[in-house]
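Re: export button greyed out
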Amino acid sequence: MRLTSLSRSEACALAARTLRLDPESVTLDSTEAIAASLRRAASFMCPTSPRRLVDATLEALLPLCPDGLARDDVSGVLEQIVAGGDLLELPRGDALSTRLLYLGPPSYIERQPGTHLLMGIRPFGAPIIDEDLIGAITYRGHMRLLELDPASGPEWLEREGIRKIHNDRWVDSSAVIEPGELIEGYGARLNIAGEAGQIDGLQILDPAASVRFYRRRWRAPMVTDSGDFVARRPKAYGADLWCLVRIREGMPHHLIDLPIERPVGAGHDEAWRYQAAVDSRLGTPQVVAVERSARSGDNAVIDFFSPLPAFADRFIQLLGDSISKSQGALFSYQVPDVIVPEILDYLSKQLWMVEVERAHGTDNC
Amino acid sequence: MCDSVATRSQCERMKRLAWTSLLDTFLLEVALLGLGSVDVPEIAPVDTVEVLRQLHVRLDDHFRRLCNERRELDPISPVFALEHDLLQADVDALNHAVRSAVQEGLSPRHRQWWLPFVVYSAESGYHYAGAEYWQNFEQCTPGWRDDQRQWIRAWFEFFADQYEGAVPTGRFATHFTIIAWPITHSVLPSDLQRQLAQLLYEFSNAMTPALLSDPVTLGQRLQVRTASYSDRFRIFCENTTLVGQVAVALLSADDQPTSYLLASTLRRIVDDVEAEKQARHWLRSAQKTATRVRGNLTGENDGDTASERRPGVTTTDPKLFLKFEDGWYAYVELPDMTPLNTTSPDLYAQLGEFRGLVSGAARQIPRSALLYSGQEVQLAHWPRVDEPFLQLDGADEDVNILLAEKCVITRGPWWVFRKEDHGFAAEVKGKFVRPGQSYILIYSDPTLVPDVPWAMEVVAGIEGVQAIELIVPNQINETEQAELSSRGIGVVSGITMRPVGVVASSWDGEGHIEWLAGESAILGIRSDIQPQRCQLTVDGKPYLSDWPAGEMELLLAIDALETGTHEVGVSLFGEGDSAFVSGSLAITIRDPQVRPEGATVGEGIRMLTAPARPSLSDLWDGRAVVSVDGPSGVDAELFVTLNGNNGRSLSEVKKAIRLPVDEQEWKKIAAEIRKSPQFNNKYDEAESCVVNVSLDGVGFAKLTCERGFQPLRWRFTKAHDGTFTAQLIDRTDGENTTVEFFDVEMPLGAQEKSPIGPIDVPPRGGLVIARSGESVATAILPTDPNAVFRLPKAHPTLPELGRRPGDVRRLIDGHARWLEAELPADPFAAHAQHLVGEAISRSIGILIGGHHWARLERDVARAIDIVNLLDQMRIAVGDSRRERELAGMIARSLYLWSSLETLQSGFYNVIEPYLSAAGIHRSLFASGFLLKLADCPAALTGRCEEETTTLLEQILNTPLLYRAARFAVLATSALSEESEGLT
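Workaround output, generated via the alternate export path:
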C-alpha cells in the first residue's frame, strides 16, 4: 500500500484522472466533471433517486471546489444527461408511482460521418469504451463525442458493445400540433381524473412568472390559484412525481401523473411541453437568445431559459455542442451559424418558442 | 491437425521430408562442431522407428532440462508436453512419424519411443474445440484403433512421473480419464484462448504485484469470475493452478520472460490469441496494465494483505437501509456472493440451484439472484439473532455454514441509520452518531431507549422492533453523551473522514468506504481544530503525516491496498504528544465487478434465469425459466439465434414481447418459439443459442445457452421419407458405453442397442438412454407424424407390479427417465412423453389407490373433460365418515387452490390430522411427498432411499392419503385448465 499526502490541486488532478478526464483542461466544478461524476455515481448506485445521485456527487466534489458548487448546477447537469440518454427515468417494478433512474445502455448516434455522440453508462464504474482509447473522447459539456473512421467506426463500436441508434429514433420528435390542441388533450384527461386529495409538498409552475427565470417560477399553490397547472410533488424515495393538477382556490381537485404519452421517459418532458403550450397561449412564449458570430461560417451560441423536453434537447445535440451556460441562461449550446434557422424553426413548431434579443442579466436561478 | 487422410505415397513423401528436416538439423550440428562437409546421403525412405527414436532422445533431453528448471520454482511448476520447443518442420516430421507408426501397427518397437506420441496428442489437444477428440484424432491418424487409447493415458502418466508433467484435475479429468491428459498438456486449447484473454482484460484493474507473482492465488481469483463464461471454459478454469500459471505467463510482456511456460510455447499461444483483433486488444491491454502494476510498485508492496480483521464487516455482508413511506421500512441489499467461491467450490452451483432465505425477509430470493449484486429485499420482521441471516433452501450444510459466517448483519441491541434527505437512511455499522446529524435507531428492547430530549418515537413498519429518531444537536452535553455511551452508541465529533474528489463505489456516509481495486482513492480527513500531525494506522501499521499548514482538511491518496476489508484508525495531534481526537473507519477494496450478460439491476432491461446459465435443452424443454425486467407495458424485441458448430448462425427467430416478462409468460413465449418451423428445423443441430432482449435507448440483455459440455449426446437425422435415425455422439473415452431403447408402447421395457452406428427410430419415437461411467444422455426420440397418423392410438402398457415400495419406486424411476429426457423440437415427441408420463402416474394410482380408485383412474384416462368426474373422484376417496369428511374438505377448497403455493399449504392443512393418525410425523414433508407422488412422481427421485421407502410403506398401508392427494392434484389441474379455456 502507498499513502501520499496531496495538495488540493494534486487531489483535483487525481480525481479528474480517475474520472478519465484531462486535468489540464477541466476543473472539478465544470459541466464535464460534474457529468462524469454523476455517471460514475450512477454506475454504482442505480437504480436510485436523482436526489441521492446529486447528494453523492456533491459530497465528493464539494471538498475540492473552493468556490463551492450549487446543488442546482449539479441537478441541471443531471437533467441534461437524463435527456441525453445516459440515464433513464423509469417506474420501479410494480410500484408505478415510484420512478427511479436506471443506466442507459451504451449506445451512439452518428452526428455526421465519423462523429459519434456516445450515451449510456456501464455498471460498476466500467468505462464506456476501452480504457486505452478513452483519451479519444472529446467532452463538450455533458456530451461525449468520439471521432472514428467513418468506414470502420460502426463495426468497432459494435464490437465494444455500443449499439447504434438511428438519429430519428433517438430524437423521436412529437407530432406538430397547436398549443391549444395539446392543452385541450390534457384538459380532457383531467376532466375524468380522480380526486386529488391532500397533497403534501406540492409545487406548481406559475404561468404568470417570467419565462426567463425557470427556477423562480416554482412555488406552492395559493388561494388565488385556480386552473390547470404543471406541478411536482416530492417522492420519499424516488424522482419527484410530475403531474398536471386542477386547482380551485389553491386546493388541488384533480390530478394526472406524468408521463402519459411515453412511459419510457421522464415525467418532466411532457410537463415542460405542456407548459410551453400554456406560455404560448398566454402570449408569453418561451424564448431563446442567439448570439450569432460576426463572421460567416463560425459558430453561434443559443441560450435557453427553460428546460427542454428530451426530444428537443436531443435534436439540438445532433447539431451542436453543449457549452458552459451564458450569464442569465439555464443552459447554452454552440451550433454552426448556418444551423440556427433550422433549430429556431424546430423549436417554434415543437415548443412554440420565439427568439429574443440577447440580454445580460441575473442568473437563471 | 490434418486436412485429410494421407495416401501411402503422400506418407512416403512426408517421411522423406521429415527425415530431411532431422537431417538438416544433424548437418547443422555437424557443421557447428567443425567437422566440415559431409557427403549428403541419397534421400531414401527411412525407418519410422529410427525417426521416433531420434525424436524421443531429443525430446527426453529437452523435457529433462525443463523439469530441472521447474523444480527450482516454489511451488514447483509442471512441465507441459506442448512445451516441446520443436520447429514447425520438426513437428511435421513428428506428426508423420507417429502416423506411420500407427499405420505400421503401433508395435512395441514403436511404442518404446513414446515421447513423440505424447507431443502428437498434446498438439491434437491444442486444436480441440469441444467436439469429439477421438473422432478428430482418428481422422488425422489413419489406422488408429479404439483399443490403443489406453496407451495415451499410460504415456502421459509416465511423462508426469518422469518430467514433473502436469496432472489433470477437476471435473473434466473425472469424466474424461484419457483425453483429459492431452488436453491439459495442450496448456490452453485454441478455442479457449479468446475467453482467457477477455477474462484477463476484465480482471486487469484488480491486478497487484503480489498476485502477479502468485499464480495459485491468481488462478483462484480468476476462477471465481468465470460465471458468465462458457461451460467448457469454466471447467478449464477449475484447474486454478494451471490457469494462474498460464495467466502469469500471458501477462508477461516480451521483455519479461516467465518461468511458468517455455518462451516458444508462450509466443505461440500469444500469437494465436492475437490472430483475432478483439482478443489481441484484450490481451495487450491486460499486459499493459500488468506491466504498469509491476513497474510502479515493484518492491513497494510491504505486505498489506487483505484481511477479514474487522469481524463485523466483510465484502459479502449485506447492507441494511431504511426507506420512509408511511413509516420506516427496512431493506437489505445483498452483494454478489460469488467471491466466496474461493472457499467453497460448490457455492456457485448451489447459488444457482437453490432459493435464498433471508431471516425476516418478506419474500424468498429467486434461484440465481445471489450470483449478482444489488439484490434488494424488504424485511417484514427484523432478522433473528439466533439464526443465520442468509441460507440457501436445500443447499449443502457446508455451503450454508459458509453463508452464515460470511453474510451477517451487525449485532444489536441497536442498529443506527443515518438519515439522508427525503426518506432514506443507511446503516452506520460502527453504531455512532455525530452532532448536527439525524439518525433512526432500530431496537427491540424498550428499556434501552436513551433518555435524551432530542429522541422521539417514530413509526417502524417492521415487525419485532421499534424505532426512534435522534436529531442530534450541534452541541451535546456530557450527560447526554454519557447516556448514549451507556446504551452502546458512540458519539464522534471533531473529526470527519470521507471519500473526496471521486464518488466511492460505496459509502455509508460514516464509517465504511468501498473502492475498486486498481483505482487511486482519495481520503479527506477534516478536523474542527487545526492539528500539527496526523497518524494513520492501516490494519495496525502506523503512518505519520504532517498536517498541511492553514488547512482544515488533510487529503491522502491511497494506492494499491489489497482487496478485502481494512481497518483504518486516525489520530490527530496538536502541540503535545497525545492525540486530541481519534476516529476510525473500514475501507473495503473490491475487485471490479463484470456486467453479467443478462444485465444488472440498475439497467433498463434485465434478464434472469433459473437455474443460472441453463443449458440449451434446459431452456427449451422447460426445465429453466427466464424472466425479463423492464418498464411495464413497453414492447421490446426478443431475438433468438440458434448457432451450430463454430458459432455459425443456423436460424433466427424474432418476436415482440411486452415487458416485463414473468416466468409464466416466458413459458408461453418459449412454447411459441419452439413451435415455429425455423426454430424447429434447426434445433437438434444447434450447439448453442443466444436469446437477446433489447429496446433501443432502454437496454439490452442477453442469455447464451450451450448444449453444455456433454460427454454423451444424441443427434437425430431425418431422411427424405420422414423417418429418423438416432446417432450417439460419444465424447468419452469410449469405455463401456451402453445404450438402451424404450418403446412408447412398453415404456419400462429396456431393449439393448449398439452404441456404435445409427439406430432406426420407430414412427412413434421412444426413449434412448446412453451411459458411460458417470455420464448419461437420455433423449425422447423424434416421431414420424405422417406414420403416427396411420397407426392406431398408442396405449403404453406397463408391467403387472405388486403393492410393494420397491415396485412403486420402479414406476417412479421410470417416470423420471421419460420426464427428464431431452426433447427434440417435435410436438409429437412431447405428446408421446406426456402420454407415457400420464400412464405411469395412473399406474401408480391404480397400484396404491385400491380397487375403486383404479376404476376411477381408468375413467380419467378415457374422459374428455375431467371436470365432469370431480364428484366421482370425491366419492372414490373413501366411504367411511372420516374419509368422506376429508374428501369434502378437499372438494370445498379446490377453488382456493389455484396456485402451487396455495395447493401446498391448503392440502397440508387438511391432510395433517390424517398423517398424524397414520403415524407419519414429518407431516409437512409427507404432505409435499404425497402431492409429488400424485402429480409428478419423477420429482421424488434423488431423495434418500431409506426415507422414501419408509414413506411409501406408510402410504401403501393408508391409501386414503394417496387418494386424497391424487384427488387434489387431478381436480385442481382440471379446474385450472377449464378456467384457462374460459379466459
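The two ends of chain B are 60 Å apart (CA to CA). The button fix ships in the next patch.
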